[in-house]
């Protein structure tokens, strides 16, 4: 009814104050709009970036009576008294150092995936989280908070014996989807030379650490590219695969299908009683083809995922059954139009406000780097 007062539950919700480090595309396209929509639960109070222009642009996108404070100094944001959660959406090479400062300041820390490029940095975050009392780090695997994903986990649990599964993630340029998202993001180049050089040195050190020192894999342009693509795009798939099916025992084979141009790769993961085929790649065709499909004797369950950059596109579950009378049934279930980022931020609120332990903590995220290591070691070139 018009003039209706807010419910008592709505009035009693705690407003979580968020400081965001990194004002690039993911912040502009998803996090700021989502937090604006969830203004009953969140207020963005601080923004930090190495670009003054990006700060100014992102500040203008934040809803509310008071604009967030801006700073070029991430440490200043981490130690600000009116910040409850630090969202780290900067380059992944900087995640560990920024998380360390935020945890030492007593903040909850939301890290956009991938958590890091190396086991060294990941373990730094894990140890800092333990020193902070544990359960203070949330890693942003938004696909695992989609309603359909949670439905798939339950439905696969009802399969007596899994016979086979396949994981697929082949997408076109994100710029196409972002350009049609209605968020009108911008990129900027007003970076200080010392910031650019420092990031280049840290990124090169990460590749050396991850490949040569931790895996014994030679650093080449091809392995460098594979590690970066797999850690960013691939971590979505591998993390979701783990929750549905558990950790694989190993990799039977891994085949990069292109060394120049569009990167593609395929692999076979070995589980105790079944195998999982994994195929992924990025090309110039404007479509988003991502799914996880699990086959049993009498049931097949498929998770269908669309681009997260266009708000409101549903994630669905498709179930195919062999019924006792011999007939065939196929059903597509869309439980909600709420997008995974919105559902993820609702879960973050439960974590900060009510102490709910996140399923996507740093120890969980470390397992993706372990699987990436399996893939790189299985590369037969």
TrEMBL record:
Span of domain Gfo/Idh/MocA-like oxidoreductase N-terminal: 16-141
One of the Pfam families matching this protein, by short name: GFO_IDH_MocA
Gene3D superfamilies tied to this protein: Dihydrodipicolinate Reductase, domain 2, NAD(P)-binding Rossmann-like Domain
One of the record's GO cellular component terms: cytoplasm
GO biological process: NADPH regeneration
One MF term in the entry's GO annotations: nucleotide binding
Protein's name in the database: NAD(P)-binding protein
Gene source species: Aaosphaeria arxii CBS 175.79
């Amino acid at each position: 009814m018009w003039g209706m007062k807010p419910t008592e539950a709505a009035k009693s919700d705690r407003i979580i104050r968020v400081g965001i480090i990194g004002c690039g595309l993911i912040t502009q396209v998803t996090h700021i709009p989502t937090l604006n929509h969830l203004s009953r639960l969140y207020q963005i109070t601080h923004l930090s970036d190495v670009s003054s222009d990006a700060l100014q642009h992102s500040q203008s996108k934040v809803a509310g009576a008071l604009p967030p404070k801006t700073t070029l100094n991430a440490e200043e944001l981490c130690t600000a008294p009116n910040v409850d959660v630090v969202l780290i959406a900067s380059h992944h090479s900087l995640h560990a150092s920024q998380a360390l400062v935020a945890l030492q300041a007593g903040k909850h820390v939301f890290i956009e995936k991938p958590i890091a490029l190396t086991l060294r940095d990941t373990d730094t975050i894990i140890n800092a989280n333990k020193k902070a009392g544990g359960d203070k780090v949330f890693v942003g695997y938004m696909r695992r908070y989609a309603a359909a994903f949670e439905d798939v986990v339950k439905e696969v649990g009802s399969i007596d014996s899994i016979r086979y599964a396949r994981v697929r993630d082949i997408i076109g340029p994100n710029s196409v989807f972002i350009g049609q998202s209605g968020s009108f993001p911008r990129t900027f180049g007003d970076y200080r030379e010392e910031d650019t050089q420092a990031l280049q040195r840290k990124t090169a050190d990460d590749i050396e650490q991850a490949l040569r020192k931790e895996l014994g894999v030679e650093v080449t342009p091809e392995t460098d590219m594979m590690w970066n693509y797999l850690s960013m795009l691939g971590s979505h798939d591998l993390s979701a695969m783990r929750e549905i099916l558990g950790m694989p025992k190993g990799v039977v084979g891994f085949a990069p299908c292109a060394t120049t141009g569009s990167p593609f790769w395929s692999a076979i993961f070995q589980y105790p009683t079944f195998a999982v085929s994994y195929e992924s790649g990025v090309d110039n065709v404007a479509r988003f083809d991502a799914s996880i499909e699990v086959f049993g004797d009498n049931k097949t369950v498929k998770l269908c995922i669309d681009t997260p950059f266009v708000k409101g596109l549903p994630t669905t579950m498709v179930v195919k059954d062999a019924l006792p009378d011999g007939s065939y049934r196929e059903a597509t279930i869309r439980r909600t139009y709420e997008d995974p980022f919105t559902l993820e931020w609702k879960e973050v609120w439960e974590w900060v406000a009510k102490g709910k332990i996140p399923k996507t903590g740093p120890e969980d995220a470390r397992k993706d780097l372990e699987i990436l290591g399996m893939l790189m070691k299985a590369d037969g070139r």
